Amino acid sequence: MATPACQLGLLDHYTLIVEDAEAVSSFHSEMLGFELLEVRPLNTGTAQAGEFDMLDYIMRFPGETDRTLVITEGLTDESVFRRHLRDHGPGIHHMAYQVDDIDTAVETLRRAGAKLLSDTIMRDERSG
After folding, report:
1. I need a surface site. Which of 32, 59, 62, 122 has the fewest CB within 10 A?
2. Order of strands across the sheet that contains 68-74
3. What is the pLDDT of residue 47?
4. Residue 78 structural domain
5. How far apart are the C-alpha atoms of 97 and 12, rounded to whole Å?
6. Residue 87 maps to a domain
7. H helices within 48-119, ranges in order?
8. Where is the VOC domain positioned along the sequence (predicted)?
9. How many CB atoms lie within 10 A of CB 114?
10. How many domains is the chain built from?
């Protein structure tokens, strides 16, 4: 088998977009053994100052220290996550893998014709 052009490391996190983040979080905790680390309300720009347009339940994989699951619920009709849910239904929004060099990985994917949704690389220390 040929060596892939973009070498992926371990899974860092994946994000689910759902209608009811609390219920999905409870299922992952009670049935699958995930540990709830934090419930984080956020304003990504579609809510007024001091209000929130999304809610993240950040959970640790069973038996892991570094891998997380982020369960996201859009709180306003205008939020990017509520629109995504409306357009695509519930499910995986994205998966993030560890790589040795993020800039090289992004450029390799870009040259291969991958559609990138953003030119900005962001790192959230809590959820990846």
Report:
1. 122
2. 35-42, 54-60, 68-74, 11-17, 91-97
3. 82
4. 12-101
5. 5
6. yes
7. 80-88, 102-111
8. 10-128
9. 10
10. 1
